[in-house]
Records
---
Amino acid sequence: MESISRRAFLRGAAATGAASGAAALLGSRAWAAPALWKQPGSTDASVADQLHIAYGADPSSQMMVSWHTDTSVSRPRILIGSPRGRMEVEIPAETRSYVDGINGVETICHHARAGWLEPNTSYVYQVLADGAAPVTGTFTTAPLGRFPFRFTSVGDLATPNTSWKKSSLNAATTVHQIGQFNPMFHLHNGDLSYANNNESSQPAVWADFMNNIQSVASNTPWMTALGNHESEWGNGPLGYASYQTRFDLPATGSNRPAWQGNWYSFKVGSAFIVSLDANDVVYQNSGSADPDNSAVGLYIHGYSNGAQTAWLDRTLAGARRDPEVDWIIVFFHQPVMSSSSSGAGGDLGLRRTFMPLFDKYGVDLALCGHDHDYERTYLVKGTDPGTELRPTVVSQDTATVDTDGGHLHMVIGGGGTSGHDDVYGADTAGTDPIYGGDPIAQLYLDTPADEVFGNAATGREVATWSAVRDPDTTHPWGLATFDVDPGDHPGGRTTISVSFYHTPPATVAAPFPAPVLFDRFTLTKTRRDGFGGHRFGDRGRRDRDRVPATR
Ligand SMILES: [Fe+2]
């Protein structure tokens, strides 16, 4: 390990222009200045960019630091230290690379895994390589036990470089807003860069995406789920080489390289959060088209042959046995339910695989994207007889929703991509015997023939489950914040206050229009530590729960 004093370390941070970040680390975590981490332009190809962090499976002790360099570098590593001087450790990075299957450009990324960190502790880190100028970031590990925290969520971001297809200036606006909301972590519900719609420039589009999120993601864990646009023609059997080269995520429990990071879980406080790859189970084919034959799409339905769903079964069973877990939150890209008429709609594939497990294990909340709008459902559980597994509405409460009785789904798909879908199915004018007046929703019912690109939804249903939709086309983008209140006694109530903010179009002259609150509601449920909770409760979790530092 290279010896470097803490003082020299922090001096080094200042020398890179990150002094404000280090100063903020020493004071409060609540700093927000997206421009802060924009490194000055450099002609040095060995300088790190696209810097971002992610939790390991245990956010109280593990953090992954990831970055990109234009060229190969010698001894990529991070130096990590706590401002109180308790530790200072150098961690070598693993380098991953791939060559884009369409334009032949090589992408080189590096990942360093910090384990055995102290809970609820802020750290400063430097990204290093021999001969390269250091780049600095900060992060804070999660506390142990139950505690209040905020996270944010949105999907379908794209880049702020409007020369790329599917990108808009609002991609920068949304990242700016996430920084202002200062979440403990962020959930990105799939469809990240839309590089696959810019076939000849995929690595360059990814670079713009990653550098856009760096202002937040270099100090706030950015946890992702795979969307259809992450499946790129020419980049591996699933098309995930770009994604898997750039993101280092908790393990799936599988040794297969093609599955790494495709699904995973982590636990923060009283919330157990699961990222799923819906591409494995949906029937719609809306990823990448063959550049030589646009009628043919890359269709990867069923690639895990049920392994992901079996993992989900085991993982949710374990979470529900854990008395420290009150909330189970799942996030994935394509929604189970959506009444968007200009978007995709729902998918029977999800209803046949994931949904029964959400019912079985009492999942509380599902977050999706894909349709570029905002919609939330009523509380649902089970299915309506005689339908295409249409989820049954078990409560029409909208202000306060008790998830002891079921789960609620949200589509939050207006992150920043240029196209928006805030047009919804027409009302039925009372034809439904129970919920007359509900909209008609689209539904994918079966696999496409011969990998047809962009297969249409052939099913329709009355969207009895649709509770709130945002049809305001003057505010087509938006994100959601989630404030978890763990409650104050074992067996008592815990809540999540959910807010969806939407945003008007950004302009070059006014790039950061303010978010406007559109929807706010409260999820509530019973804490899971009500029976002998003191024995299993917060005080019981210490070193026995630490897992090895790798992933
Ligand atoms: Fe999508």
---
Amino acid sequence: MLRPTKEMLPFKVVYHEKYDLNLGPHVFPSQKFRLIAEALIAEKIATAEDFAKPDPAGDEDILRVHAPDWVRKLKTGTLSAREVMLLEIPYSRELVDAVWLAAGGSILAAQCALRDGFAANLGGGFHHAYPNHGEGFCAIHDVAVAIRRLQADGAIRKAMVVDTDVHHGNGTAAIFQKDPSVFTISIHQENNYPAHKPPSSIDLNMMDRADDEEYLAALLPALQKALDEFRPELLFYIGGADPFCEDQLGGLSLTKKGLMERDRRVFEEARRRGVPVATALAGGYARRVEDTVRIHVNTILAARDVAGQFPVSVALRG
Ligand SMILES: [Zn+2]
């Protein structure tokens, strides 16, 4: 007889089948959320017990970040044509359900990370969402919602967002610009969307076609210094798959190996300082969706490796 399945990962992966935005043939491969979850099971990286299913964020959670008017428009389907154009994905009830769930997923991931040292939301990372409008496939800023919720609960005071999506984290920067309790780092291709880049705490502007070595040489010293000086109680990692050399919306030249090394090094820097890490996905537009899925799966593998290196009792209590 088979033994009952047990957890295989030292942390939770947060996922809901309704993360899929059901966009059909769109450059945003929203089926990737499901494909990543399926790959983790198929490749015996995780079992069903490693998964945690989020509830949708409460409206009170969303409203800590977003303007009541924007929330009302999303809930009632009354976006203007210009607002839909900026969002760059069609409006639907499913979209609203999916982004409320993604925000709930990032809240749950952040809570699990405080307990276990790590947690991964297999969704979210909607870093282009502003308080009063959506942009670039992002309607609700799940990571900001999660940070504000944990602060409101008194679970953390200071958080850091490390955003490695190839596109600048403009929504994150705008939301936390005047907030000394949240430190934001964005490493992105300078010559790419969004045109307007409000300042993050640190912006690392990469030149076109920057490779693995140039990228890590920019990211690591800045991250180390920021962690030492700011000393966050939680690091939220927005792990973009779109700095990949074959990405259709990116212009950097990172390899899959380089991207996994990036993830691993960020996690190591955080965990050796005892900082819990929650991850969210963000963008990935490789011509072959398998490549995007692989890069996101590799983020989970990098987290697993680093979690083994820095066990939670040492990391969080040491
Ligand atoms: Zn992106």
